[in-house]
Inverse folding.
């Protein structure tokens, strides 16, 4: 079996590619190595994949329709795992057109390439917990209304779900969306909270804590996320179209997360309390009952188990 992984040099894409290779899949990785964050980290992840049996990398932007068509024609994948996207809630406020190009036009290109492939592949794509917007009911369930996003990033992810549904309906191609909840682990993105906190703590700077620390997040360890992805990719009896939450089913207090991270790094945190940022939500909390029933998904890693792994990697990678 052959899988296309778009955004393979990203955090989740790298871990997913590694696991599919371990399981004997052929993996074709597609990434444009954009400079939203340090490209060296993406190159370093790629270096760990290159040379592994069954792995091929293509430096390609999903916004390049002709290039993408050529890759599909040459490789003829059985499954496409679309993780390529412009991430970031706050970044979308100041750079909206980047999200139009990658998350909307780029995703449409992926859909079109799947639709016209000689062998139409199964498409599994990344959505986000951000689609729940300011919903107050906890935990978030897939049946909840998601019509009030509070960031452009969230709006593009909701649009992806609607676009995929349309293609499934019109062309009978299988599309499965996964709403990710605050993923963390080794080889983590530097723009995410744990990395920003670790960098500040280890260099003696105060960490910026928004909403005065009164926030809740469903922190999900990357190995658990990848297990869920693999289960969805390999499942044979899923509907033509569906959406699943993929999280930890635990909503952690932000201050508890900071304390576990500080303990793991061996430092005392100095916190600068700030108001809520535009586009942020107060809490995320995933109901994972639907995914559990569909594929047996059961996350196992608590923050007291996962955060020390991240902390160890962070210090080693940055030579601290």
């Amino acid at each position: 079996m052959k899988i296309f992984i778009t955004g393979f040099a990203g955090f989740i894409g790298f871990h997913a590619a590694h696991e599919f290779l371990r399981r004997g899949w052929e993996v074709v990785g597609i990434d444009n190595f954009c400079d939203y964050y340090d490209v060296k980290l993406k190159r370093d992840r790629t270096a760990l994949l290159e040379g592994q049996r069954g792995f091929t990398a293509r430096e390609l932007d999903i916004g390049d329709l002709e290039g993408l068509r050529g890759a599909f024609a040459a490789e003829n994948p059985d499954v496409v795992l679309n993780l390529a996207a412009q991430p970031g809630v706050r970044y979308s406020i100041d750079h909206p057109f980047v999200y139009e190009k990658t998350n909307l036009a780029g995703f449409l290109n992926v859909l079109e390439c799947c639709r016209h492939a000689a062998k139409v592949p199964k498409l599994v794509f990344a959505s986000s917990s951000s689609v729940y917007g300011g919903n107050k009911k906890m935990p978030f369930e897939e049946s909840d209304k998601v019509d009030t996003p509070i960031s452009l990033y969230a709006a593009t992810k909701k649009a992806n779900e609607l676009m995929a549904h349309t293609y499934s309906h019109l062309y009978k191609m299988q599309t499965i969306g996964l709403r990710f909840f605050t993923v963390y682990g080794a080889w983590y993105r530097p723009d995410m909270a744990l990395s920003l906190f670790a960098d500040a703590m280890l260099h003696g700077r105060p960490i910026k804590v928004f909403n005065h620390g009164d926030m809740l997040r469903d922190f999900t360890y990357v190995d658990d996320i990848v297990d869920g992805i693999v289960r969805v990719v390999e499942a044979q009896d899923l509907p033509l179209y569906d959406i699943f939450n993929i999280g930890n089913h635990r909503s952690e207090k932000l201050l508890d997360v900071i304390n576990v991270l500080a303990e793991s790094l061996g430092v005392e945190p100095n916190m600068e309390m700030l108001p809520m940022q535009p586009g942020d939500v107060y809490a995320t909390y995933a109901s994972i009952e639907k995914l559990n029933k569909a594929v047996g998904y059961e996350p196992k890693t608590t923050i007291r188990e996962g955060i020390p792994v991240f902390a160890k990697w962070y210090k080693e990678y940055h030579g601290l």
